[in-house]
Every structure is written in C-alpha cells, then in structure tokens.
Amino acid sequence: MRCLVVADLHYSLPQFDWVVNEADRFDLVILAGDHLDLSSLVEGWAQTVVVRKYMELLRSKTHVLICSGNHDLDSRDGSGEKVAKWISDCRHGQVSSDGDSFEIDNTLISVCAWWDGPLMCERVAAQLAADATRRTGRWFWVHHAPPDKSPVSWTGSRDSGDGVLSKWIAQYRPDIVLSGHVHQSPFVKGGSWVDRIGPTFVFNVGQHSGAPPAHIMFDTDSQEVVWIMS
Questions:
Q1: Residue 181's Cα: distance from chain center in Å?
Q2: For the segment 8-22, what is each residue's pLDDT rounded down to a tens digit?
Q3: Which fold would CATH assign to domain 2-228?
C-alpha cells in the first residue's frame, strides 16, 4: 500500500492542487487536519465549500482519509461542544472522515476527530477501544495533534502535544500515529518529523508555505517512509 500524508494545508489552494495532481499515484491520501484557515479573509463557510470540492476531486482518484483539526470546527453538537460538521458531510464511499475506521491491505486505520471537550474525547476513546478489538494486522491512527513530551510536538520553545493521546498510545500500542498541528516540529532544533514511543512510530508532517506542501510518503510493502519538504 502506497500512502501520501499531508496536514495543515490551511486553505492553501496551490497545496491542495498539488495533492490532487499527485493522488492517483497512491492507494490512500491522508489529510491529517487543519484544512481551513481561521486567519483567512475568506469566510469559513466559503472555505468549506472549496475544500469539499477538492475532496470530490480526490475521491475520483483514490481513497481519502480526512480528520478534523482545531481550525476546522464549524458548528456545535447537541452537548454544545464544537465539531467539524462539514468534515462529516464529506463522508463518501471513497472518503473516510471523523469517527470512521477503514481497512485496507491488512491495515486498520482509525480516523480520530479533534476533541474540543470531554464528551468528544470520550467518543474518540470509545472508538479506539472498539477498534482495538478488531485489530488483526497493522493499526494506524490519524489524529491531528501529536503526543506530548515528544520531538514531534516541540515548537522550539515549548511542548504543544496532547497528553491524552500519549496515554492512549501507551494503552493500545498502535503501529503508527499520523499527525500535524505543531507546524514547527520538523524544522526546529530539538524537534523532529518522527519519533518512536515503545513500538509505536509517531509522525508529524509539519507545515510550510508554498507547493508542494511538506508531506510523508510510505509504502507498507517495502516498509519505507520518506518525509519531503521542498
């Protein structure tokens, strides 16, 4: 299985264009959160319309996994917690989104929502607990924030990772966790795009301006992983 991973595109249309142009070379394209840009002059609802069009283009070429990040929250659920409803609306036969679990090539992939409060955190925890019982081969997670106390969550001055995710990793020991969120980690002293926590490899794609975006390519057959920033 060949997979392309990007994150934190933040409504950069040249970067989305690049992903679409490359998509048919891969069995999976994973977009690990923060597709929108809260600082943009373009209204959030308009950004969602455009990004959903990109999802339609991508799904015509390959299977797509898309999780929410903190920039993507556009509504509130029945409990009042913020959610990315527009990402759930992207769900399709070729698009797996928040809360979905997707199986391919002896690999189970859990697509985790950004949790804004305790109830969504509990839902993600329940999703991972359920998926743990289904695991027979490799298990990958897509989770926008990286774990804390790791080079992949280091900004250059402080740690910005998710401590709850670290506890889940220690409990379930997935093979790979794919994330973004902390833009600087791959580029600063003390940071990295990859770390290993026990048997689990954790990756943070990182973010920079311009196309192509920072991205990770991996092949489960050759067991090769490459991070590219150009």
A1: 9
A2: 999 999 999 999 999
A3: Purple Acid Phosphatase; chain A, domain 2 (3.60.21)
pLDDT band at 44 (very low <50, low <70, confident <90, very high): very high
**Contact status, residue 169 vs residue 202, Cβ threshold 8 Å:** yes
What is the per-residue pLDDT across 110-143, written as a single tens digit (0 to 9) for each? 999 999 899 999 999 999 999 999 999 999 999 9
Cα distance between residue 200 and residue 223, in whole Å? 14
Where do the domains of the chain lie?
2-228
Specify whether the CB–CB gap between 181 and 207 falls below 8 A.
no
Query: DSSP assignment of 62-102, as one string?
Result: SEEEEE--GGG--EE-TTS-EE-HHHHTT-BTTEE-TT-EE
Q: Find where tokens 């050759």 sit.
A: 222
Residue pair 77/87 in contact by the 8 Å Cβ criterion: no
- Show the tokens assigned to 120: 């969504």
Distance of alpha carbon 79 from alpha carbon 65, whole angstroms: 26
